[in-house]
């Protein structure tokens, strides 16, 4: 994922303002203020005046004595009391001098909307660095540059030039929004307002030259009025800080939802191992989010809508499925298919619930999904509310999904359903499928303050995110405890380690490995094989070969000393043909091991988040299958087990298709131990893997038959 390099300038002077004061300042200066809404400074002034900013508003304009009825000053230095926050709506070429003027005048924070800095060119990056240096030396903070500012509805502070603020209200709420994209922030704000969703704070950060995501995230976690937090992330400045803030959010029971760009990044370049290519930067980011309960969304509107539902239904929910309620048989059928396809599962209703439904609905409809059209009760009895109440009361229903089509008394019945959904402790997702015909029903739902969706798929995606939050909350792992008997310091050399060196480290950490002997020559290899016992495996020993089997560096099933010596001679020639520059230091003669499945366990050090561990099925073909799970290291056994169980091919470990039940506890133990090896190697580690490990039937363990590692050196 994208990272933002730390600044090399001196530490900050004590900040003049706290983050909370920046979000809710007592005074604001608009540098470049204007009466004209055709200009950035004019729009910012208009929005602050129009929406009633209650603090002191100070226009800075050299040519006018007042702007929009406020006394104007030629420079910041002329203002009697230094403004807490200044927003700079000035040309980019004058920005550095304006930042310097703000610092000299005692301003606490500059919000910089100008563009053309680190995101644009080396020259722009130099200007940005100069601005940050000025701020550092004075204790002034910077939001931006290349941002759209701040919107804080409860403080009546639209510190932003966007046209979405040309409205009569700023809808206040309890969701915090932090975005690196300013245009995206205001678009999400506008869409949410249309949906009736308000925000506590909206922050646009742009280049994060100074203040970054975590500065505001930490404040929102601590703010009791912020009930959920939404992030749009392009790059993080401090992975450890983000992880700690996310964990604090999780501990507080506060939903944290996130959209991240760069999901398809190719991963680590010049990878020597499967681990490095499979545990790319986004994969690691995803694992960190999973570990800290962060919900990953793909669409920012879905993210905010799901956050709104979670704020409305904050309690922990018992595991369960989806109860589908529709006014159409077709709607019920489509919803049931889609719920099943995304893996949430249809709730299996109790016999008592089905009996209650059977009193008002015909037998086919008296179950999940409910088709309200299959009524059994007389027309004089309106069963709209009753059927919804019965369905949502069933203990197996964790989420309600309502698909409404046009029907008689559309608005009235929709209102009844909305009232049931609003009163239910279970999240209900209402989708209105018609167009203009549903305008009155939409108005009815707004009147009862029940969220709704105009497209069924929108409702489904929001429900997926809410279910993801519930699942992550239920899966919180205990702290990883160090197994007894592990060495204090891993004995692995810098640079590329040989298979023997890696397996020695694995064995020291309690991971079973094959018996083997090193031989310097083909003849010595034959003698070593005789001492070890046949059949054997022969491998080339070389720090220059990443994948021995790809270049003829492995021979299997050798049954006598002569065959071993001959294979060694042939191996030297074959490897030389593939890799003329590779140096073969000798041969490893190993016992021949059989197993029922091949597993890879690997680790690497992520520059942003530290060590991570990976487990997958497929062994040497794992890059083809791409069936892996990743977690930050070290891991507790409970997390390691969930990693194994999450693999698509995990049923093969449980005796599928007549195969024996395999030793999953041994896999879990190996994952835990290798995760501690990665933890202990720390920043020395580039990548390490045991691959394959051959897994035997339950109770018989596993054995690592190959390994490789690269360390800093």
From TrEMBL:
One Gene Ontology molecular-function label: ligase activity
PROSITE patterns associated with the record: ATP_GRASP
Residue intervals of the ATP-grasp domain: 503-540
BP GO annotations: tricarboxylic acid cycle
InterPro entries linked: Acyl-CoA_Synth/Transferase, ATP-grasp, ATP_grasp_subdomain_1, CoA-bd, NAD(P)-bd_dom_sf, Succ_CoA_lig_flav_dom, Succinyl-CoA_synth-like
A Pfam family assignment: ATP-grasp_5
Superkingdom, natural source: Bacteria
UniProt keyword terms in alphabetical order: ATP-binding, Ligase, Nucleotide-binding, Tricarboxylic acid cycle
Protein family: In the N-terminal section; belongs to the acetate CoA ligase alpha subunit family.
Stated name of the protein: Acetyl-CoA synthetase (ADP-forming)
Source lineage: Bacteria, Pseudomonadati, Pseudomonadota, Alphaproteobacteria, Acetobacterales
């Amino acid at each position: 994922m994208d990272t933002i390099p730390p600044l090399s300038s001196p530490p900050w002077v004590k900040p003049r303002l706290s983050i909370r004061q920046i979000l809710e300042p007592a005074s604001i200066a608009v540098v470049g203020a204007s009466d004209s809404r055709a200009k950035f400074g004019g729009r910012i002034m208009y929005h602050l005046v129009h929406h009633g900013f209650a603090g002191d508003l100070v226009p800075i304009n050299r040519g006018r004595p007042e702007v929009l009825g406020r006394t104007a000053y030629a420079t910041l230095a002329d203002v009697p009391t230094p403004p807490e926050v200044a927003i700079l709506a000035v040309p980019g070429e004058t920005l550095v001098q304006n930042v310097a003027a703000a610092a000299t005048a005692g301003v606490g924070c500059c919000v910089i909307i100008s563009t053309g800095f680190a995101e644009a060119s080396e020259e722009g990056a130099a200007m940005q660095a100069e601005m940050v240096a000025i701020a550092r030396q004075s204790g002034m903070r910077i939001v931006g540059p290349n941002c759209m500012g701040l919107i804080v509805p409860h403080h009546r502070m639209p510190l932003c030039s966007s046209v979405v603020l040309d409205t009569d209200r700023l809808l206040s709420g309890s969701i915090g929004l932090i975005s690196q994209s300013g245009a995206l922030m205001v678009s999400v704000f506008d869409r949410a307002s249309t949906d009736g969703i308000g925000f506590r704070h909206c922050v646009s950060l742009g280049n994060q030259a100074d203040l970054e995501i975590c500065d505001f995230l930490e404040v929102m976690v601590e703010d009791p009025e912020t009930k959920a937090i939404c992030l749009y992330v392009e790059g993080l400045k401090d992975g450890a800080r983000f992880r700690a803030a996310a964990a604090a959010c999780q501990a507080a029971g506060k939903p944290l939802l996130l959209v991240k760009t760069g999901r398809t990044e190719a991963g680590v370049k010049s990878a020597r191992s499967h681990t490095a290519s499979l545990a790319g930067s986004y994969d690691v980011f995803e694992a960190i989010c999973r570990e800290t309960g962060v919900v990953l969304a793909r669409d920012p509107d879905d993210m905010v809508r799901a956050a709104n539902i979670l704020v409305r239904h904050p309690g922990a929910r018992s595991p369960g499925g989806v109860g589908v309620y529709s006014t159409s048989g077709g709607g019920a059928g489509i919803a049931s298919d889609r719920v099943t396809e995304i893996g949430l599962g249809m709730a299996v209703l109790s016999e008592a619930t089905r009996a209650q439904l059977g009193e008002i609905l015909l037998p086919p409809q008296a179950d999940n999904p409910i088709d309200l059209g299959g009524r059994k009760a007389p027309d004089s009895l309106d069963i709209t509310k009753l059927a919804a109440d019965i369905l949502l009361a069933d203990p197996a229903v964790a989420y309600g999904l309502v698909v409404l089509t046009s029907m008689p008394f559309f608005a009235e019945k929709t209102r009844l359903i909305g009232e049931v959904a609003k009163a239910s402790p279970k999240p209900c997702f209402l989708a209105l499928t018609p167009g203009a015909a549903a305008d009155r029903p939409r108005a009815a739902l707004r009147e009862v303050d029940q969220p709704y969706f105009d497209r069924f798929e929108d409702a489904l995606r929001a429900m997926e995110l809410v279910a993801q939050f519930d699942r992550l909350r239920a899966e919180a792992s205990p702290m990883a405890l160090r197994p007894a008997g592990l060495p204090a310091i891993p004995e692995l050399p810098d640079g590329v380690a040989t298979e023997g060196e890696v397996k020695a480290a694995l064995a020291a950490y309690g991971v079973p490995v094959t018996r083997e002997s090193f031989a310097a020559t083909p003849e010595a290899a034959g003698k070593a094989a005789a001492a070890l016992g046949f059949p054997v495996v022969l491998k080339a020993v070389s720090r220059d070969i990443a994948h021995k089997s790809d270049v003829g560096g492995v021979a299997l099933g050798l049954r006598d000393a002569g065959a071993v010596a001959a294979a060694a001679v042939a191996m030297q020639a074959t490897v030389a043909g593939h890799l003329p520059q590779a140096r073969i230091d000798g041969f490893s003669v190993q016992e021949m091991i059989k197993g029922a499945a091949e597993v890879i366990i690997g680790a690497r050090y992520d520059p942003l988040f530290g060590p991570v561990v990976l487990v997958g099925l497929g062994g040497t073909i794992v890059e083809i299958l791409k069936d892996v799970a990743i977690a930050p290291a070290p891991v507790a056994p409970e997390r390691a087990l969930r990693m194994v169980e999450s693999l698509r091919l995990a049923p093969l470990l449980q005796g599928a298709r007549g195969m024996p039940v395999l030793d999953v506890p041994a896999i879990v133990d190996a994952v835990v131990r290798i995760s501690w090896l990665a933890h202990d190697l720390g920043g020395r580690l580039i990548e390490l893997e045991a691959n394959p490990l051959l897994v035997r039937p339950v109770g018989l363990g596993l054995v690592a038959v190959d390994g490789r590692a690269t360390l800093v050196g």
